[in-house]
Specification:
Rossmann fold, seven-stranded parallel β-sheet, 2 domains, homodimer, alpha/beta, about 325 residues
Chain lengths: ~325, ~325
């Protein structure tokens, strides 16, 4: 990680930024050295997390929001977390499609994050990628999740502002996810607001929000949008700005629980990854893992006993 | 974990089964001892993983499928993974609603899984809960995800058969998730098949499936259902049976990559959790974690350096 390369990243050289993000995806020592240099340069960007069910039109909304910021003279980074990418490079295809419409503009950087190997670390790598874009001078960074699982919710919670995208009449499963999204949304969007059922969804949401007790006393606004027609995008940008202003004033008065919780989560993610990777890079560990996997599959051993053997015995003799 | 308690679990005593699942949610030594006893009793149940976007009607479909199996004289376990539960007990509310219609029957056991604390382990606990239900004599165990994130996809992949639920006209995000669901679905359901656009969705899906190359040469069937009217539920059960029969014949001929991959994933999940929990239960680690979180939040230290300090220094003097 030489200084000339770091300089290029900090100057926003697109190829160097892309290389740096690949380094944090790969993990290991390279990622560690890089992130130590990057960290002091972060904290200038506004990080916007966007989540919501597949089919809610998040991609279109993100694209239109990025356009809006770009037209306002900002440098925009988009980081997309796509659970399909480990399987078949779906994310890369998605990137290409979007680059054709939005990219090719030097002020917009789009990247989908993929896990490499089975050591995980996607959440950590995503947060690192955001830090790199921040250090590289991107002033608005949008983190978009394709899925809405527990990892994705955690990642969106690390943003400066979390936007939850709903659509009218989401059906019977909304009941189940309401409780969760209630507490991560700083701003709510009802997209596809040209469909019927908008008012009902809005009223239901308002009723739920009125019951919520946020420690920061913020009342999350509800913004109707029609992303495909760019309707409501400016309202969304305004709502985002308002919350960022509100929360930075709150922080100035000492309410930094959110930042501390994020730091703690990052530490735990990194510890989890490092501990496992330290163990697995030990001589013989990979063999032990393979041997125990076969034994468990054949029901000769349970996973708990296998883990105890792996952690107690020197890897070279384990599973013999 | 006394023998009398284990005996009750293996005899399917509902309160003991519930207590056992709580023990694996809590993790630690209790979970470990329990699971070592449970593991040899597993392998009799058919585990059915069901995933798909929120709004696809998964809950209704799962309920109807459970009814179908119950009427056929089977004992049915339902394990629901709900990302909202860590926030506000949404899962528990969901349980109560479902228990009112489906539960109260001693042959149906419903449980939503929740993370406790920030050590994670939800994926591991879910797979353990399935093993407990298996050992307790439940012959069909349905694992249902509310979210569709990377963790949820991993969990569904541990089932004997994975069912992916789609709805007609899922919108612009389906493009992005297609690649991922293509490879986890052994059976596809198009639910809400009374809506328009069923044929188009079916044709798109067939086109995609014809391009897929499954190592086991299985051609995933597409089953149209209207879960709210119980239509297509029997067809779904038949499709599930067919795949289970097909894959058990494939295993008999030595194709056990799937079982080994699942065993490997379980080992890694358990290692990740154990390593972190071993570190954090060390004297002083919690203090170090808190101190470093504050330092990172205040930008005095980067997370990578903090982790190196935590892993190299004895916890009691770290962060001083």
């Amino acid at each position: 990680m030489d200084d000339a390369f770091l300089e290029k990243v900090f100057n926003g050289d697109i190829r160097s930024v892309a290389r740096a993000i690949t380094a944090v995806e790969n993990g290991g020592d390279g990622a560690s050295a890089l992130m130590k240099a990057v960290f002091p340069r972060t904290g200038r960007a506004t990080v916007i997390g966007i989540t919501g069910a597949p089919g809610a039109g998040k991609s279109s909304l993100v694209d239109k929001l990025a356009w809006y910021y770009k037209d306002a003279g900002e440098k925009v980074g988009i980081v997309c977390i796509d659970p399909s990418s480990p399987f078949s490079g779906g994310a890369i295809l998605g990137d290409r499609i979007r680059m054709a419409t939005l990219g090719l503009d030097k002020n917009v950087f789009i990247r989908s994050m993929a896990t490499r190997g089975n050591l995980g670390g996607l959440s950590r790598a995503t947060v690192d990628a955001v830090a790199i874009l921040d250090a590289a001078g991107y002033s608005k960074i949008i983190v978009e999740t394709v899925g809405v699982g527990q990892d994705e919710v955690e990642i969106v919670k690390t943003a400066d502002v979390s936007v939850v995208v709903l659509v009218p009449g989401m059906g019977d499963d909304i009941q189940a996810i309401k409780a969760g999204i209630m507490e991560i949304g700083d701003v709510f969007v009802i997209n596809k607001a040209d469909r019927e059922g908008v008012l009902r969804t809005q009223k239901e949401l308002e009723a739920l929000l009125s019951l919520a007790h946020r420690p920061d006393m913020w009342h999350p606004p509800i913004v109707p949008t029609v992303a495909t027609e760019s309707k409501g995008v400016e309202d969304l940008a305004t709502a985002i700005d308002k919350f960022v202003g509100y929360s930075s004033r709150a922080y100035a008065e000492g309410i930094s629980e959110r930042k501390e919780a994020i730091a703690r989560w990052r530490l735990l993610e990194l510890l989890r990854e490092r501990l496992l990777s330290d163990l697995l890079t030990k001589n013989g560990s990979e063999d032990a893992l393979n041997k125990f996997s076969v034994k468990i599959a054949q029901k000769q051993l349970d996973p708990y006993s296998a883990v105890e053997e792996m952690l107690s015995a020197p890897p070279a003799v384990a599973g013999g």
